[in-house]
Amino acid sequence: MKIVAIYNVKGGVGKTTAAVNLAYLAARDGLRTLIWDLDPQAAATFYFRIKPKIKGGVKRLVHEGKEAGDHVRATDFEHLDMLPADLSYRKMELTLSSEKKPDRLIARIVKPLATEYDALFIDCPPSISLVTESVFARADALLVPVVPTTLSLRTLAQLDEVMAALSTRKPLVLPFFSMVDNRKALHKQIAGQRRHGAHDFLASAIPCASSVERMGVERNPLCVFARTSAAAKAFQQLWSELRARLGC
Amino acid sequence: MFESTRRLAVFGSHATAPLDGIVSWLVQELGAVAISASSRIVTFLDTFDWRCHDNDLALSCEAVAGSCSLALTLTASATGTTVQTLETPRAPRFARELPESPLRQQLTPILDVRALLPVLQVRYDTRQMAVRDHEAKTVLRIVAEEAWAAPPTHPGEEARVGVTLSLLALRGYPKAARKAAKAIQEKLGAVETADGFLAAAFGAIGRAPGGYSAKLDVALAPEMRADQALNAIFSKLLDTMEQNEAGTIADTDPEFLHDFRVAVRRSRSIFSQIKGVLPSAIAAKFSEELRWLGEVTGPTRDLDVYLITMEDYIQRLPAQVRSYLAPLIAFLREKQQAAHQNLATALKSERYARFVQQWRAYLNTPVPQHVETPFGATAVAEIARNRIWRTFRRAVKEGIAISAQSPACQLHELRITCKKLRYLLEFFQSLFPKDDMKALVTTLKALQDNLGSFQDLEVQRAKLVQLAEEMLALRGTPVRTFFAMGQLFASFEQRQQADREEFQSKFEAFIRAEQSELYRRNFGGAAVTAAEP
Ligand SMILES: Nc1ncnc2c1ncn2[C@@H]1O[C@H](COP(=O)(O)OP(=O)(O)OP(=O)(O)O)[C@@H](O)[C@H]1O
Ligand SMILES: [Mg+2]
Description:
The complex is a heterodimer. Chain A is of the alpha/beta class.
């Protein structure tokens, strides 16, 4: 099972949008796919019309990791299942701080799912915490949506610092441009360049489009209700590129 | 993803409810919504002697949407679960025509040389439905499928099988599936089915799978009059001939002719081995017709055997050498086709039709009260014992005389005696203890296989030389083909040598004390030396 975490410490940059559409595309390619909504805001869960609740809350998930599969629910799409969000995820940090090996938490929870799924997408909350560190320790790739602004690029440098401090094995960091507005000169200038600092951005970039915002109304992946839109095609490209990098 | 599938069949009181009625019921009672409707046609394939069915398998074939290939599915009949699937460009007739695949591997030993024939056609009208919660999230998928069965030869004569509702439980939503299943069972009178579909579909068109067997299993009583008993055996053999007639004429696969010929040979064997039971005029007349049938079917069978042996042999050769033998195979096929032409003409002839009609009429006539033949009224068990005992003793005598230096013809003699013995055991098996007969046939068969293989190779070697001469005379055959044929000849010899070495042990098993004792106990010391040839 390949694990892709969609992460950025900055909020509102298109993490959830990417996680939902990429997971959908992976499943459409026939990969047995799971998406884990790790954000207590439960946006990804909402897009799939699933109840943002897991039985027993985070306590049960953390302490009885074997049962992660019991909380999984099928989405309306073939090959795509979801481990939903739960309000109690916001207390995960607290629960974790009393654990012996907090950086192993995510690995432990997903272990029993590894044979059932080919790909796991984790939609991370916008924060730096023991929880996200534990995600980094297990993920194969960190997919980082970056809005092409100077300030956003700085968050990437912050991420580098966090990663450098980690004692665990490190995932592949794959930044890509998100919400690119080509009417803005700065966007155009920044997104026109693949190399920024120590990072090579993926070639695929997601344009800013009103169709993306409609996901909240449609409550479906963009690639379902507007599959021919420019943004949907961009996600398709992003998935192909990601798949090649993951080798799956 | 789907966690489990439950299949509920709507038969019984609602069996006549049309699909649309059931769909409306699902909409009203379960709040289901119809998503899409489709229709597809599935053809079920099996061999003439139902080899898939007998192995608890069902092989089906359907067009793949949006492509011109076919999807083959092998299902376990007992559970309805898919065992293998395969996409092929066209419907296979033989296992060897399938692309290399696990499906082919599984089917090859089952089908052997038999052809796949369409045995059933089913049209499915399908409605995809979903049950959704208040967030419009799908919590259960239902596939409602109405099946219409038809004989493949008359696809227009459809008969309704019924409706099957498949409840596809979605992971994390078990309650919805449970609730729906309960309502469907209680209110719609549906019953859970693991399978049963195929049986129901065959039933709808008034057919039953299985049921063909060339095995001789005529139930006789020991006191039965011999003439009556022989008539019963002859009747079963004539049935087998008639059942295989069409497939033999069409050359659907070599087994039709094989079964046909075995029935002919068995019938001839009765006439030659058991005399004085049927009126001699009858015996003379019909055994002449049977001899003729043996003669007109022989050349084709020989070539069939040759081709089967060749297929088997070349499978094990490197591709290069295999291509060298292609001209030989092509030549054999041509000859086979020509021989089959003659055979088909014979089976379509007036003479053949008259034979079948008169032979059947004779066998259907009740035996006369007053018996005029010497042994017609003798108890069949007595005749059976006598004949089996004598033939066994003769086989023993012939076998003991065989040494490593004996000429092939001596082995051939023994082979014929063994074949006679085998037929006798089979004709009269119902008169003796089952286990004894089984044990006797098993060891006899092992000996026969050895002798048969040796003799076939003897014939095939001679034939190979003859074929080479014919091909040489025709010119145009590349030299390397002759070299490859030379190798083939050597391999025949090698295998013959191996058969020869194995002969002793097979024969010893045949005459070892327990076996002989079984023969003696069941057949020995028969008082009357009735019906001697
Ligand atoms: N390419 C885009 N074009 C237009 N709007 C977008 C695009 N991508 C995301 N949005 C919108 O921006 C908002 C934030 O997106 P999203 O929820 O994907 O970001 P996020 O990084 O997951 O946010 P958070 O940090 O709060 O989890 C949403 O309303 C979404 O519809
Ligand atoms: Mg989010």
